[in-house]
Write a structure and sequence with these properties.
Layout lengths: L1 H25 L3 H13 L1 H10 L4 H39 L3 H17 L10 H20 L2 H32 L4 H40 L4 H11 L8 H13 L3 H15 L2 H10 L7 H15 L3 H32 L3
């Protein structure tokens, strides 16, 4: 008996030690691996269609899906992030070196606003200092992404390889985890289903709509003459998560800027663009993208995005809302299982 107890204790210690070791081995790649799993889930419909087209040749279907995701998702995002980093760095350096034309333009606009609206009186706004602090955070976070070209290549390679295998063997991995779980298979399937709903509603819904609104805002800025269009489009994508205000926080100052600088056509055009192309995205795409998934409150999504970026860096834009979504799903499942246990206890007469 003692020998069996010792063997059991040794096995637990060895298992714990090996799991800790595996954790530290995989830790540098958690970001790419989690993103690969999320995108593999989102691209499942594409993979299934290609698998049917290629007569159930899963390897070929997974490779074709990975190629499509690289061409239509990764490359555009990489180019966009590179442009945002370039513009934010240039603007930050301009402010650090005395403000340059940007800060002078802002001060000129404030002078015109005071002349047009005397009620403002001696109102002062050290916009340059605020902009400097915001841009410093952006430059630091984005700079970490570009700090090591070799690291970028490695993470991209890990993401693509993991994405391929999650597509090809995702169902086998899910079944393996279900078998390992001490819960009943029905409870495990419930957990998987709720997590899928959370990922779908959060990433495919809120985040996709925010990114689309940010891109459309940047396009409008470029068309109607607002400088640093990519940078402010990126800011608009984050502002899209602010409940009740959204991209209006970025578009409204841009419209005022265009009018006060004498660009009346640009101001009218940007206002119309913001109301139609940008403002209507949520109404038209929201129900289609989010569907009946687990909805997160707008405030929860906003806090998750900002908190996620503060904790995870740039990847927090996706990982933050995903973590909150998973947490809420697990809380709901916990109470569902607790109520189920309580009902079973009552039925058994205990």
């Amino acid at each position: 008996m003692d020998k069996k107890n010792h063997a059991h204790s040794f096995l637990l210690i060895a298992l714990t030690a090996s799991m800790v070791l595996v954790y530290f081995i995989a830790k540098p790649f958690f970001g790419p691996l989690i993103l690969a799993a999320v995108f593999a889930f989102l691209f499942q419909p594409v993979y299934q269609k290609l698998s049917h087209y290629f007569k159930n040749r899963k390897s070929l279907a997974a490779f074709a899906t990975t190629l499509l995701a690289t061409i239509f998702i990764l490359i555009p995002i990489a180019l966009l992030v590179t442009q945002i980093f370039k513009e934010s760095s240039q603007l930050y350096q301009s402010l650090v070196n005395g403000g340059g034309g940007f800060e002078a333009s802002i001060r000129d606009l404030l002078d015109k606003a005071r002349a047009a609206f005397p009620i403002l009186g001696d109102f002062e706004l050290d916009f340059g200092q605020y902009a400097k602090q915001i841009l410093e955070v952006m430059v630091q976070n984005l700079g970490a992404v570009f700090s090591s070209f070799a690291k970028i290549l490695l993470n991209t390679f890990i993401f693509l390889i993991a994405f391929y295998f999650f597509l090809k063997d995702g169902s086998r991995l899910k079944n393996y985890l279900v078998d390992l779980s001490p819960l009943n298979d029905t409870d495990d399937e419930l957990i998987v289903s709720r997590l899928k709903d959370g990922v779908s509603a959060t990433v495919k819904g809120n985040l996709t709509i925010g990114l689309i609104q940010g891109v459309l805002t940047g396009i409008g800025f470029a068309i109607f003459g607002v400088p640093n269009a990519a940078l402010w489009g990126g800011v608009a994508a984050i502002a899209a998560f602010i409940p009740g205000l959204g991209t209006a926080l970025v578009i409204t100052p841009a419209v005022v800027f265009l009018f006060l600088t004498g660009n009346t056509f640009g101001g009218v055009g940007m206002l119309a663009w913001g109301v139609t192309a940008v403002g209507m995205v949520d109404n038209f795409l929201g129900p289609k993208l989010v569907g009946r998934g687990m909805h997160l409150h707008s405030l929860a999504v906003f806090i998750a995005v900002l908190g996620g970026m503060a904790f995870f860096g740039p990847l927090g834009f996706i990982l933050g809302p995903l973590a909150v979504s998973v947490c809420l799903a697990l809380i709901d499942i916990y109470f569902a299982l607790k109520n189920k246990t309580h009902e079973q206890s009552i039925a058994s007469g205990k």
